[in-house]
Specification:
Number of strands: 22
Helix content: 10-25%
Number of domains: 3
Shape: elongated
Distance between the termini: 62 Å
Radius of gyration: 33 Å
Structural class: alpha+beta
Number of helices: 10
């Protein structure tokens, strides 16, 4: 390996003196390019931090292609093929503006070769050029304990690169880097990767040089609720049954409270976190800016919290890769009309199996609904209820019967839990017979709360 290293030293010294900036079409570049090449972070006409539009405008003669990665809404990654030369080697220039000031500029060179040393030569040549521009590079330590190689290229310059062994047979590589400093805010890295394709393709060398700057991620970003499409809103059953806990047997005064609300109801605004990947809301807190300027009573706040568990914004409208925590001020109105009157229960109810279900509660839903007090005391129960499908095909249930029977508190506890599970059901438009419309139909709902082994 030492003989190979000496061979590399001689070639790197020559290459470092033969730096050529610009593209194969250098004659087509405008005059401002001459000013760019004097700075350390400029490669041909391209400079670190340059806007994508400016890069394309300043060098229209290059072959450009754009990659918009899935999940990104604001990030554009553009590549100028053969945008920069270092000696005899040509590099693609990749510009990738990130979020909140983050930026990445990459230089990528690929060639076929049967000899690994040609790949180490290319990686070392780029590392030496980077060191000339950005200061000393030091290869990171490896778990394998392999030592880096200190390569003297003259005039006090040195590059330390760490060799490593790839996962594929015959694969090897070299890596070096340097973190940001007070005068240079970017992270610098150079790597070389030599590999042989198991499918018989020619051995390939890939060399990558990277300048990267981290963005200043804000503590939080805000979703514009007025413009954000809703993928899933609380159903009629959720609006109805969210009031069950509020209207407990020992708090009948709240029935009057609800009736005394104006027909328009009251709007509560909660400050909630929004999951960027799913659009679901969570970690909701009371705000002081609810319309009307009144402090929200805790029982009413509990009603709204329960409803917001069923609210989900359209995830495709949210940039899932943005690292800033996303929050939203979500309004939710509580009105007397939310409490539905399902009507008289008919003497005969359809069995659950006759309903064609579009959505069913999961085992996790049942586990979460299990009353905590019942779990602590190892109490099991079966709850049956009479349920009616609403216009939105959710199920509003009444007349819960708990078996084995208990006192009023016991019955209410399991009834609430069962209603919560039954609100997760959503029927299809027609029953299983393929003819009868589902909306308005009554059925017998049943939820079993059993302890695990």
């Amino acid at each position: 390996m030492r003989q190979v290293t000496m061979h590399v030293i001689r070639k790197v010294a020559i290459v470092s003196l033969a730096l050529l900036l610009g593209s194969a079409r250098a004659g087509q570049l405008p005059a401002p390019v001459a000013a760019l090449v004097e700075t350390a972070d400029a490669f041909g006409p391209f400079r670190f931090g340059m806007a994508v539009e400016d890069a394309v405008a300043i060098a229209p003669g290059f072959d450009w292609y754009e990659d918009r990665e899935p999940g990104y809404r604001q990030r554009r990654v553009v590549t100028a093929e053969s945008g920069w030369h270092l000696g005899e080697r040509t590099y693609d220039v990749i510009l990738a503006p990130g979020y909140h000031g983050a930026y990445e500029l990459q230089l990528r060179h690929t060639h076929e070769s049967d000899v690994a040393e040609s790949c180490s030569d290319a990686a070392l040549a780029l590392a030496v050029e980077f060191e000339r521009r950005f200061g000393e590079l030091t290869g990171p330590s490896l778990d394998s304990g392999q030592a880096g190689e200190l390569i003297d290229v003259g005039k006090g310059s040195s590059v330390t690169m760490r060799p490593f062994v790839g996962n594929l047979p015959g694969a090897t590589g070299w890596f070096t880097r340097r973190g940001p400093t007070r005068t240079q805010p970017w992270r610098v890295a150079v790597s070389g990767d030599f590999s042989r394709d198991e499918n018989g393709s020619p051995p390939t060398c890939k060399v990558l040089g990277t300048l990267a700057r981290e963005g200043e991620v804000p503590r939080e970003a805000w979703l514009d609720v007025a413009q954000a499409p809703i993928a899933h809103a609380p159903s009629a059953a959720v609006l109805h049954h969210s009031l069950d806990a509020w209207l407990q047997p020992h708090a009948r005064s709240r029935v009057r409270e609800l009736a005394e609300l104006s027909a328009a109801g009251v709007e509560v605004i909660l400050d909630c976190a929004v999951r960027r990947d799913t659009g679901a809301v969570w970690d909701c807190r009371t705000t002081d800016d609810d319309r009307g300027g009144r402090r929200v009573a805790s029982p009413l706040e509990s009603v709204v919290r329960q409803r917001l568990q069923h609210l989900r914004f359209e995830a495709r409208a949210i940039d899932s890769r943005d690292p800033a925590p996303l929050r939203a001020k979500v309004p939710m109105r509580v009105a007397p009309a939310d409490r539905l009157a399902p009507g008289p229960v008919p003497p005969t109810l359809r069995p659950l199996r006759e309903i064609a279900w579009a959505v069913r509660p999961s085992g996790m839903d049942l586990e979460r609904a299990y009353p905590r007090e019942a779990l602590r005391n190892e109490i099991e129960a079966v709850v049956s209820a009479s349920c009616r499908l609403q216009a939105d095909l959710s199920a509003v249930c009444v007349d819960a019967v708990v078996t084995p029977a208990g006192d009023a508190e016991h019955t209410h506890m399991f009834a609430l839990a069962a209603y919560g599970v039954l609100t997760k059901f959503r029927a299809r438009d027609v029953l299983r017979d393929g003819v009868t419309a589902a909306a308005g139909e009554w059925f017998k709902g049943s939820v079993t709360f059993r302890l695990g082994n």
